[in-house]
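thought: fold this chain, then report.
action: predict
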Amino acid sequence: SDIANGKVIVGLQLLAKDGVLTFKILEAPLLPHFHVNASEKKWKELEYIRSSPDNKTVVEPHHWKLMMKELTVPENTVLTGIGFRYDGKNQLDIQLKYTPVLNASTGELDVLASGWMTERHDAQRTKEFDKNVQIPTSCEVNSFPDMMNGQCLLMKKVSNDIIPFIETQEVVPEPMMALSGAGITHKGHDNCGGYLAPVALTLSDYYTRSVGHEREFTLNI
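observation:
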């Protein structure tokens, strides 16, 4: 997000653009006590993504493993960025950017103290689809989150489709506020390819209920 102008992430959308899996973010100016100016919210346009540069995440057949993950940013910070990276096992994983809030009563961001974070998990059983798996649009049972945090999903090609599909619905909490984390999850079941969907984690009432009380927050980095 545009942290130089005090903007934070308030919503997410998962997309495939130019053959690259990516997040689109909704940003809005941060107000006192972790609220946001919803009247100035705006989806940040995605730039053209080429499929070859080293700094872009391209999902190729030889590394179709994707980590299901929900991450929470450090205490007293807000979510200001999200992206994908490959871990040491060549598995696609998410990373978050966080920015500390210098003073809750003003909503001022400590831009220079921003950082990126990832999280390692103990090895878990990789979810693989069987040979009779259906594409999501043919499934008769409603999809639901069916994987653990930190579990890896092996994507699969069925005819001309790659499963799971991507759920492109915009995820924007109501009421709108700064986010404390984000992630990606799989919605499906054993015989259904299902959908990949973004997860938006909201701030605790601990941060937002203190309107009228001045508190300063710091983060040791």
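thought: worth noting. Residues 3-202 form one domain.
final: tokens above.
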